[in-house]
Amino acid sequence: MSWTFRVPFQNIKNFVVLRPPAVIFCFCIASFGIVTLCLSLYIKHTPSPLKNPDEKGWNDVAVKLNRLNFCLLPPGVSPAINTTGMEAASVPFEMILPVHEIWKNFTVISGSIAATDIGLRDYPGTNLSFSLSLMQSQNKICLNLYHPHFVSMPHGAPTCNSLQFNPFPRSIGAFVLPREDKKLTTGSITPKCSDNAAFDVKLLENPAWTVLLGKDDRARSSHHLMVASVFLLTSFFIMLCFAAVRGGSLSKTLKMSNSGRTPTEDKEPLAP
């Protein structure tokens, strides 16, 4: 009985010694299987709300805007915006204190922005017109985005009226300065912008606007991860069984071939 149990363990030991790449592959499969199993159980049983990674929300737009740098146009220069035939989305945001000093001189800033700059990666090459309007306080603005009908905007946020608190707006145009990574990939030349004309917008995220996974989505995601973990762990146990049964076959074959070889067979034949 002890010999019967000793052979599979010896085969596994030989498998580990003779096949290191296969051992690493088995270890990776087992690790991925355990991780997906734990993630599936976490998604299914955790009481915490989970963000839906497939749905863009206004908080995602705020995060993208916070990473951008803007530059004011000279006074009297109109921004390149187009609102004719466009649909509008207006969302109120609170700004992170301290608010930039640019808002002491102007109440409306407008311009054009690429859809990809605010996280709408499904619409490359599409530019959206935007305006930032101060609301009832110096730390709250109304973001207006004018977009074609085929551009899908996030939902789940209240709307705002940009003209409600700006009956006599002090407006100016602005443009988006290219990010450093874009300059490196596209080789674009950064437009000159003086220090007193450069500014950024820091918006606060609203937890109530986060797009969460619904009950059905959580169950579906947990099921898919469970299926993946079962497949990976099953593959690992099949390879483990193979190692237990045939892991030492290679060493036995090498020993038999070496023992049956004569010294003359190991020598190379002399050239005639």
Automatic annotation (TrEMBL):
Residue ranges of the region described as Disordered: 253-272
Subcellular location, principal: membrane
Segments crossing the lipid bilayer: 20-43, 225-245
Extent of Basic and acidic residues compositional bias: 263-272
Cellular compartments annotated: Membrane
Entry keyword Membrane: yes
Organism the protein comes from: Daphnia pulex (Water flea)
The protein's name: TMEM248/TMEM219 domain-containing protein
Biased composition range(s): Polar residues: 253-262
Transmembrane helix recorded as keyword: yes
Keywords: Membrane, Transmembrane, Transmembrane helix
Any single GO CC term annotated in Swiss-Prot or TrEMBL for this entry: membrane
Domain of life: Eukaryota
Residue intervals of the TMEM248/TMEM219 domain: 12-74
InterPro entries associated with the record: TMEM248/TMEM219, TMEM248/TMEM219_dom
